[in-house]
Structures are given as structure tokens and as C-alpha cells.
Design a protein that fits this description.
By secondary structure, the protein is an alpha/beta fold. Helices cover about 40% and strands about 15% of the residues. It folds into 2 domains: about 140 residues, Alpha-Beta Complex (Aspartate Aminotransferase, domain 1); about 220 residues, Type I PLP-dependent aspartate aminotransferase-like (Major domain) (Aspartate Aminotransferase, domain 2, 3-Layer(aba) Sandwich). It has 14 helices and 13 strands. The chain is globular and about 60 Å long. It starts with 5 loop residues before the first helix and ends with a helix. Bound molecules: pyridoxal-5'-phosphate. The site of pyridoxal-5'-phosphate (PLP) has 13 residues, from helix 5.
Length: about 375
């Protein structure tokens, strides 16, 4: 026993993993820079907060937290299922979409299986693949968008799973219905395609694919959604997946018994019904988008048109430097170094006031 090193204890693939490093806590930023207010535009949270109806429902649910939650989130599953016109056994609720992505890998990926995705894209695909000992294959984006033909070319008989982030985080771009249809014609039937649609509710483009069609065709697809973004419930950790029953049943086998807490379930149920809040979020998001497009253009900063609540912009200088200067002014953005695009930054669309403060701060940085 004496000579066993920590790394010898880990499962294969775990040693190469880098633990997730969360952003600096807001309280720490406040203390360090002597600030009272922070504008967080780094994690694509909802700048309008949470649906007031969801908040009221969660307050009520607090009284019952001495009891375990309903393990299968039945009420919420039924509501989601009704909304999409599918059976409730085609829905699974998880402890955030992150947790759903892990369930997908746990249920499907064996050691040596290939998992393909676009690059840059959402980092969790890599960690869940490596946790399961899968071979992770990254296919570069084309014009900041998932290159589905190039992904299709990389499929081999070892390919088990393909993650398509649509719209894509961090670039905000989307693949269309037509591109997806062509891709699905090529994908072998024994290969699972997980469409991560965390930002689907923000998409206004009519060419956005209706992936539910593949569920109805009983193709091996899983659609991943979250309550963290448009519904403003990131802090409660709740997301869901939909797919043909045979695949959702596999996810159910690996999920924890009481994965989703009572308060989150109550909040999500109420948030789904609050159309007024959703419309308000969409309006503010669209205004923010148009404002930032205009201001970035004036500043000569190229950006990728976005279908989400964030924007990927080329600041024309080291974004880590800009990040630090903005931080001193209480504005937090996500610099692009983690995606090997050091001049780029991913910036969440804030309220009009927050967006104006961001632009004023950027102008000051440039002029200095
Ligand atoms: C593309 C994508 N998928 C999944 C998630 C995770 O969402 P959740 O907060 O539900 O875990 C995020 C969060 O930022 C995301 O951007």
C-alpha cells in the first residue's frame, strides 16, 4: 500500500481531467476592488432574475423540505411532456443540464468509445466523456458554427455519441433544420446524437431545427434543455432531457434516486407557466442584442450574430487584459483563452443599463 500514488487510484482517463475552476465569487471581487455593485456577464444567467411566480412557488415549497422530493419529478415531467406533445416517459428531469450530460455519458459511453463534438463548444462534453474513459474527438467549427459535414466524416464504427450544441456556447451560432436533416441522414442508426438546446428558447430564427421530429421517428437522439437560462433558475440546478423511451429509460437507470430537489421542481413548474416573464426576457434580450451589435460595430469589434443570451466578440486585443480592467470596474466577462481564442470574449447580454455600462467601460479601456 505504501507506494500507491494518488494517480494510481483514479480510473483511466481521470488523471488527464482538469477539475472545473469556477469564476471568482462575486463577494471576493467586491472586497478586492472595494465595489458595492457587480455586473456579472460571465455565465449567461438571466439579467432579469427569476420569474416572480417561480419565486413564490419556491417559497411555498420550502415548508416541505423535510420530506424527500418526488423522485421522478412526475408533475414537472407531465407538464414538459404536455408542452411538447410527447409521453411523460420520454422526459427525464435532472439536477441541471450538466447532470443530464453526465447521465448521457454514464449510460452510453464505454472505455474506448468515440465521442465527437465541435470545437470550441461547451466544455462539459469533454469532461463527461473522459470520466467514462471515452475517446473525445473535437472537430473545428467552420465560420464559428458547427461543421456538421466535417463531423459526419469523422464518424467510425467506434463512434457512440455526438454532442451538437445548438445554438453553440460560446459562439452563439446555430445549425439549421436543413443542415441537421442532411447530417441525420448520414449518422448511423446505432450512434446517438445529443442535441444540447440549452438556449433554444431564445432562438427567433425560423430555420432552427425541430429536433423533436427525430424523437418521433424513434431515432437515437436526446434533446437536452435547462431551466437555468430563460427561466432564471440557474441557482436551483434543474434541467431535462427528452428522447425516445428506450433512451430515456437508460438515463433513468443511472440517475440518482432523488436527483432534483423539491424547491427546484416547484420553481420550474411555475416558471414554465409564466409566459409574461418569458416575453419580457425575450424583449430585453433582443434589445440588448441590437444595442451591442451597433456598439461593437462602432468600436470596430467583429462579433458572431447570436441566437442566444450572450455574444462572442473579437475585442481586437488580449481579452484577459480587458477582463481584468473590466473587473476593476465591477464588470465580469468570460475571456476567450479557454477556447484558444485569446482576443475573443463571451459576454452575456445584460439589462439595457448593464449593457450601457459595459460599452462605456470598454470605450474607456480602448481610449487609454
Ligand atoms: C450549452 C450548455 N449546456 C448546458 C449547460 C448547463 O446548464 P445547467 O445550468 O442546467 O447545468 C450550459 C450552461 O451554461 C450550457 O451553456
Amino acid at each position: 500500500m505504501e507506494n500507491i500514488k494518488e494517480k494510481d487510484l483514479a480510473r483511466r482517463g481521470i488523471n488527464e481531467l482538469v477539475a472545473y475552476v469556477p469564476g471568482k465569487p462575486i463577494e471576493e471581487v467586491k472586497r478586492e476592488y472595494g465595489l458595492t455593485e457587480i455586473i456579472k456577464l460571465a455565465s449567461n444567467e438571466n439579467p432579469l432574475g427569476t420569474s416572480p411566480k417561480a419565486v413564490a412557488a419556491m417559497k411555498q415549497a420550502i415548508d416541505d423540505v423535510y420530506m424527500y422530493p418526488e423522485g421522478s419529478s412526475m408533475d414537472l415531467r407531465q407538464k414538459v411532456a404536455a408542452h411538447f406533445g410527447i409521453d411523460d416517459d420520454m422526459v427525464i428531469i435532472g439536477n441541471g443540464a450538466d447532470n443530464i450530460l453526465l447521465l448521457i455519458a454514464q449510460a452510453l459511453v464505454d472505455e474506448g468509445d468515440e465521442v465527437i463534438t465541435g470545437d470550441p463548444s461547451f466544455s462539459v462534453y469533454e469532461s463527461v466523456t473522459r470520466i467514462m474513459g471515452g475517446n473525445f474527438i473535437k472537430v473545428p467549427l467552420k465560420d464559428f458554427t458547427y461543421d456538421l459535414p466535417a463531423i459526419a466524416e469523422r464518424i467510425t464504427d467506434k463512434t457512440k455519441l455526438i454532442f451538437i450544441c445548438n445554438p453553440n456556447n460560446p459562439t452563439g451560432s446555430m445549425v439549421t433544420e436543413e443542415e441537421t436533416a442532411r447530417f441525420m441522414e448520414i449518422v448511423p442508426r446505432d450512434c446517438v446524437v445529443a442535441f444540447d438546446e440549452a438556449y433554444a428558447e431564445y432562438v427567433q430564427d425560423q430555420h432552427y431545427p425541430d429536433t423533436m421530429k427525430y424523437v418521433h421517428e424513434k431515432r437515437n437522439v436526446i434533446l437536452v434543455r435547462t431551466f437555468s437560462k430563460i427561466f432564471g433558475l440557474a441557482g436551483t440546478r434543474i434541467g431535462y432531457a427528452m428522447g425516445p423511451k428506450h433512451l430515456v429509460d437508460l438515463l433513468r437507470k443511472v440517475t440518482a434516486a432523488f436527483a432534483v430537489n423539491r424547491v427546484a421542481q416547484a420553481g420550474a413548474l411555475a416558471a414554465l407557466e409564466d409566459r409574461e416573464f418569458i416575453e419580457k426576457v425575450l424583449t430585453v434580450n433582443e434589445q440588448g442584442k441590437q444595442y451591442l451589435y451597433q456598439e461593437f460595430s462602432k468600436l470596430g469589434m467583429p462579433y458572431t450574430p447570436t441566437h442566444t443570451n450572450f455574444i462572442f466578440v473579437n475585442l481586437g486585443m488580449d481579452s484577459q487584459v480587458v477582463f481584468k480592467k473590466l473587473l476593476a470596474q465591477g464588470i465580469v466577462i468570460r475571456p476567450g483563452g479557454m477556447w484558444n481564442l485569446p482576443n475573443y470574449a463571451r459576454i452575456t447580454l445584460g439589462t439595457l443599463e448593464q449593457n450601457e455600462k459595459l460599452i462605456a467601460a470598454l470605450k474607456e479601456i480602448i481610449n487609454k
